Amino acid sequence: MNEVILSSAYLGPVGYYAKLYAYDTVRLERYDHYMKQTYRNRCIIASADGPLALTLPTEKEDNPKCLMKDVRISDHGNWRHVHWNAFVAAYRHSPFFDYYADEFQYFFTHRFRFLFDFNLELCHWICEQIDIHPSIRPTDSYEKDFSEGDDFRERIHPKRDYRYSDPDFIPKPYYQVFGERSGFLPDLSVADLLFNMGPESILVLRDSIAKKRPDRLL
């Protein structure tokens, strides 16, 4: 079966969305124990000063082994305002930010209660804009060993080098607003790809996969 299992991600990196492009069915893990300093509540964008990590705050749970599906979003630090302003500052001069801005801003004005639901709604929206249509199925229980397909739950991680954890992902360079200053920054948040490349984002995803399937050639 052409199936993959992924962790939930807040505007996950390009390598994450390359999986959403490449696989027919995506199982989205929601019964794992929530861990900080992962893409579950963090995305990395390109600012004028280089890579910038945006971290979404979560409510402190009494249970240290809180399941991902139960993690609540906190209002601490006025993060919605901070994140939105960071996206505006980073991408207002990108070719496609204005085209997507109104719909994208909804996610920073509407209050989602649970992190998993917020990430999933964002993921559906991103996929729609890029024109990829995987079957995304949240998990019903936790399976340590995923035997139905490929397991990338912990392989796509901000502290792991994709060159070793995911050798089939070879980032295709694309235009970036601060590219002349910083050089090409690979595997940033998919938001960077979308705002810079718009409808051609799907071509970048296609060309970033080493092992291409015949039915995925555009």
Structural class: alpha/beta
Strand order of the largest sheet: 5-2-1-6
Largest sheet: 4 strands, parallel
Rounded Rg: 17 Å
- Average the pLDDT over all residues and give the rounded result: 94
How far is it from the N-terminal to the C-terminal residue, by CA? 21 Å
Question: What layout of secondary structure does this protein have?
Answer:
Blueprint: E1 3-7, H1 14-22, E2 25-29, E3 42-47, E4 50-55, H2 79-91, H3 97-105, H4 115-130, E5 135-138, E6 150-151, H5 162-165, H6 179-182, H7 190-197, H8 201-207
Parallel strand pairs: 1-2, 1-6, 2-5
Antiparallel strand pairs: 3-4
Structure description:
With 218 residues, the protein is α/β, with parallel strands linked by helices. Helices cover 32% and strands 13% of the residues. The protein is built from eight helices and six strands. It has helices at residues 14-22, 79-91, 97-105, 115-130, 162-165, 179-182, 190-197, 201-207, and strands spanning 3-7, 25-29, 42-47, 50-55, 135-138, 150-151. It has a four-stranded parallel sheet with strand order 5-2-1-6, with helices on one face. The longest helix has 16 residues, at 115-130. The two termini are 21 Å apart.
